[in-house]
Amino acid sequence: MVGALLTITLITAVAALLVAAITWAVAASAGSWMTVAKARIGLLVAAGGAVLAGGGLAWTNWLLDTGRGL
């Protein structure tokens, strides 16, 4: 169950990353600087979500391995 939720989370984060990057590019070429700023924030939030999802799994595995060794 956890693996499926992680997969859904990572797919959603990557999709949001792509949408934000495309929005940033289109808004920059159109000269809409307010939309560029919002797309940049969206890109950073999506990247942070992907990093936290992947890092959370790695941290949980580390904690489980450390607990077995005690």
Key features of this structure:
single chain, 70 residues, 2 helices, 0% strand
List the helices and strands and how they pair.
Layout (H helix, E strand, L loop, with lengths): L1 H29 L2 H37 L1
Helix pairs in contact: 1-2
Gist of the model:
The chain crosses the membrane at residues 43-64. With 70 residues, the chain is mainly alpha-helical.
Kindly state the mean pLDDT as a whole number? 90
State the end-to-end distance. Answer: 27 Å
Amount of beta strand: under 5%
Number of separate structural domains: 1
Strand element count: 0
What is the count of helical runs? 2
The string of secondary-structure elements, in order, is HH
Helicity level = over 70%
Transmembrane segments: 43-64
Keywords: Membrane, Transmembrane, Transmembrane helix
InterPro entries: DUF6112
Pfam families: DUF6112
